[in-house]
Amino acid sequence: MDSLRRVINEALEAECEMEELDDPKEREALALVEIQLIATKRLVGMGVPASDYLMQIIQEYYSARPLKMPTTVEHALFFLMAEVGELADAFVEEKDQWNRNNVRDRKMDTEIADVLMMLQVTAKLAGIDPVTSLLKKMKEKGFDYLASSGSSGS
Hints:
Elements: H1 2-13, H2 24-45, H3 50-64, H4 73-93, H5 108-125, H6 130-140
């Protein structure tokens, strides 16, 4: 865990090359993406699966809040399906042409984060590494990311 935190901190401190953007929110968003890419590349270089890195963050999130993490695949899958429903609801809310009877303050970005979190928890409880599964699926369909130039990084 200490090595994960160290790599993340190093990535946060690294100077990221950014395009010139006028909007501070766009600059911040781009910086966060670059930090994530740097941290992920370093972790993968250390042999740490990206899903373990994500799971560490999720576990710390649950520990920091009075939340109980699901302990079974079934429980996690139910939470995942609820989050997918909330994501769909957020999408509908953003469409001006659709009227909602029960308006909630849901945003697609935060609902996508919830879906990702619960998908990772479900996968972990099922003993599945989603990143490995994704790469395997892509390879079965004729695209080998690890053999492509995309894995070399910069």
